Amino acid sequence: MRIQRKWGRMLKNNWKRLRRRRLLIIFGAIVLALMFFVRKKKSSDTYCEPIDVVYTWVNGSDPMFTDSARRYNPNYDPARFDDKNELRYSLRSLEMYAPWVRHVYIVTNGQIPYWLDLSFEKVTVVPHELLTTKPELLPTFSSSAIETFIHRIPHLSQRFLYLNDDIFLGAPLYPEDLYTNSEGVRIYQAWMVPDCAEDCPWTYIGDGACDRHCNIAKCQYDGGDCNTFGSDRSEENMMEQQIDVNKNVKLIPQSVLNSSTHIEIRHFPLRKRFRNRKYSAQRNGLHFRELVLHKNLSTLAELRRIVDNYNSQLKSNSHANDPVLSTDTLQKNMVRLEKSVEKTSKNESSKDIYSHSLIYTNMLLNRFYGFKARNVLAHVGFLLDRNIIYAMQQKFLTEVDVTLSNRFRSTNDLQFAFIYYSFLMSETTTLTVGEVFDEFDTDDSHTWSDREVRTFLARMYPLPLDWSAVRFFEEVVSNCSRDLDMASHKIHNEYTTLVYERYEDSTVPTITRELVEQCRLLAEALETNFATRSKYKFNIIPKRAIHNNFMMLTSNITDVVDGFDKIRRNPRKFNCINDNLEPLLVEDNELIRHLLEDFYLSFFPRRSSFELQFEYRNRFTTWHDYQRWRRRKRAALVVGYAASVILILFIVRYICIHKTKFVRRYVQSL
């Protein structure tokens, strides 16, 4: 009783003190709440979406893997998949230069690196059998087939960085190097897709001029530029026709061009296209060789630009009545070509297969998005979006299934990164006329003011604006306003344009959204020039050499040492060392393996958190062994927890039964 009274007095005194200081306590709670919300707001402003990293890895030195591959292909060469510890040093570089990565997933055929610390919370090994949609096609030894299902990893971030194990980081890498909200994903391009035939680059295909040496199945029959009956639209014949046209063209004196005389504009033009075809023959009359002869070409981009301009000029001079291949015939030729590609010999080298698969993928893109000279991606890490991958695979569903069904790399494989970024850059979305109208309606008045009309004309016509363009626009709007029955709209909707938004001499009627949508000429101009947009945001980085080093690891020791020194001299963000050793030179290859190990250690000598300590070795060599151990561990934990719960319940029950005895002893002790 004495102790109870003592505790009661203490609680009463403490409560009185709290009442005296309640204002101070309330003020402190408010300050803490404000600090919490301000800190939360700052963290949300600087929030960056999590990005995971996905590796594809295989240990080609494993005898079990080699035997499994040779069961499906007796001519299998294990040299390509030989493990040289590239993944270990790539993970070291990732921890050093990209610590912001949330998680690392290693996609394997069931193998586990002996040095990998499976207890580290930031790494997970994922076998193919958990990801593929067709388990009956396993095992697969094709990287192209594996890449078709890497986005199906459970709990993978929306955007993830895909890295090959032969790529390591040599400089700090930031998320802004891969993606920004303003620019979208950054694309690092390299060389152009290999030519479909000798002296037949992809810039010649579908350019409107018949190139005889490109009129073959491998080049998709020049994109339909040559018909089956033999067209006279070859480059030489078109040059002769151009020369004849040039002789009959009457040149306009420069003094007349510089005078106030102007051409009457009576149409809405197409932006970014050559508009005046009357003098195109005069401007493009030089032969291509003569055109290039007088150019100081220092880069491949300049040559490509000249070729593209020259081809577009030839196309503008082509006759409209020339016979061309029909769409059905062109589609049949493409399908026939794709079937012929599938019959390519299986004994080709991996480099030849890679080149042919690039050509096959480019032909597929030509069929969907038109003929175009495309660039292969540089050897860097690829930031991929899972939603875009799903959309891409849905569009090329048949070709993805064919790629997935190939156990080994084949010429009819889809090159994953190439088709992904080409799809991303080629997909478009179309706005309605009303949505385009709202973009020009900057003051949200539901009408176009004279200033907004000026903006529309400046984006439509070449600068400086000709007065005839303004008069033509006024005539179109006046005719549409007079001819179309707008009375019903005016009864319900009265639009007033502010006085300061109209020029003093303006005679243009009120341009409403309904007027623009129902005016055929104006609606077609908006649809043609402004409605089509890129569906996804992207930014092509022109200076790829700033971020990328590429080296081919050959059996030539001198070249290998020289290549290592070049990377040592200037390491980039992404550095790729591609294995291309000659399998017959065993002694040289062994020496090069030691040189490669020494090269990696010069950059990353310290053990990363992904690795076990050097004196330890992973006890699990396969994913199945690891899962079997985890099941046993979980079973042991369940048994242990169950026994602990039963013991606790037994103790509680015993205390409840004998509680009077314990209380009596406690009171007696007091």
UniProtKB/TrEMBL annotation:
Residues 193-227 form the LNR domain. Keywords: Disulfide bond, Glycoprotein, Membrane, Repeat, Transferase, Transmembrane, Transmembrane helix. One of its GO terms (molecular function) is UDP-N-acetylglucosamine-lysosomal-enzyme N-acetylglucosaminephosphotransferase activity. GO terms for cellular component: Golgi apparatus. The keyword Repeat applies. One of its GO terms (biological process) is N-glycan processing to lysosome. InterPro entries: Notch_dom, Stealth, Stealth_CR1, Stealth_CR2, Stealth_CR3, Stealth_CR4. It comes from the Eukaryota. The chain crosses the membrane at residues 21-38, 635-656. Belongs to the stealth family. This is N-acetylglucosamine-1-phosphotransferase subunits alpha/beta. The lineage of its organism: Eukaryota, Metazoa, Ecdysozoa, Arthropoda, Hexapoda.
